[in-house]
Amino acid sequence: MSTAKKQYKRVTTKSLIDMKVHGEKIAMITAYDYTMAKVVDNTGIDVILVGDSASNVMAGHETTLPITLDQMIYHASAVVRAIKRALIVVDLPFGTYQGDSRKALESAIRIMKESGGHAVKLEGGSEISESISRILTAGIPVMGHLGLTPQSIYKFGTYTVRAKETAEAEKLLEDAKLLEKLGCFALVLEKVPADLAAKVAKSLTIPVIGIGAGSVVDGQVLVMHDMLGITHEFNPRFLRRYLNMYEQMTNAFSQYVADVKSLDFPNEEEQY
Ligand code: KIV
Question: Is the pTM of this model over 0.70?
C-alpha cells in the first residue's frame, strides 16, 4: 500500500474513500464558528465536523440532547463561510431523525439548504436504517456513528467504553456492515475497544474514523475544545491535548484585568 500523500484541493466524500484505499489517515476535528474553522481549514485538516458537541462546549449543556436543528444550522453556516478545503459534516441533532424517516429527510434537507454543509451525521445502526435510506435517496451523503452514541446517554447511563461484551460487539459489527450497505460514505466509531475497531475497519470499504477507538482505523476525530485544552475537566484516556489553552487564556485574561485596574492599559501608544 502506497503512503505517498495525494493532494486534495477540495476534500469530498470520494476523497475519503480514496484516502482509505491509499492508506492515508483521515484527520477530522470539530468546529462550531467562523474564526476557529478558518484557522483549522488552513492546516490540512480533511473533515470538519459541526458536532452536536456544540451543545456541551458552546452552550454549556450537560448532554448533547438539548441542541436544536436551528442552532446546528447557525453553527454550521458560520463554519461553511470559513471553509475552502475541508469536507463539512453536520450532526443531525437528537429528535430530528429517530423514528420518522420523513422528518429525518426534512431535517437533513434543512441542514444542506440553510447551512451549505456537505453531509450529515446520524447516530445509530439498524434502528435508524429507514431514516438513513430516505436521506440518501435525496442525494445527501450520510456519515454513520456507532459505539458510544452520546444522544443515547440516558439509555447507556454512562460515558464508559462500549461493546466490550461479545453480544454488543457483534451487533456493532453487523450495524457497521449495514451502514456501509445502505450507502453511508464513512463511519465514526466512538469509545470502543481497539481490536473491535480494527476488525470493523478491516471489514468495511468505507473509512472508519475513530475517537477512543485505537490506531488501526482509517482516521481520527477529536473535539476542538478538548484537544486545545480549553476544556480542562474532561480527561478521557484517548484525549491528547496539544495546548493548555485554559491556563494560557486564564493568564491572558487575568493580566488584562490587572492592566486595566492598574492603568497600565492603554498606554501612550495605544490611544489616539
Ligand atoms: O458531536 C461530536 O463532537 C461528535 C464527535 C465526538 C465524533 O460526534
Answer: yes
Q: Which of 260, 230, 233 is nearest to 247 (CA)?
A: 230
* Under 8 Å between Cβ of 224 and 231: no
**Angstrom distances, CA of residue 237 to CA of 27, 46, 102, 211, 224:** 19, 24, 39, 11, 16
What is the arithmetic mean of pLDDT over 140-153?
A: 98
The C-alpha atoms of residue 231 and residue 240 are separated, in whole angstroms, by: 12
174-196 burial by CB neighbour count: b if 16+ within 10 A, else e?
ebbebbbebebbbbbbbbbbeeb
DSSP letter at 18 equals: H
The letter for the amino acid at 181 is K
State whether the beta carbon of 55 lies less than 6 angstroms from ligand 1.
no
Q: Is 169 in the pocket of ligand 1 (CB under 6 A)?
A: no
Which amino acids are annotated catalytic?
190
CA distance 253 to 86: 32
Contacts of 216 (CB under 8 A, 6+ apart): 194, 197, 198, 201, 202
Average pLDDT, the chain: 97
Per-residue pLDDT, 6: 81
Domains of the chain: 13-241 (3.20.20.60), 244-272 (no CATH)
Query: Is residue 108 lining ligand 1, measured as CB closer than 6 Å?
Result: no
User: Whole-angstrom Cα distance, residue 13 to residue 121?
Assistant: 13
Would you state the torsion angle of the CA atoms of residues 126, 76, 57, 215, taken in this order, to the nearest 10 degrees?
50
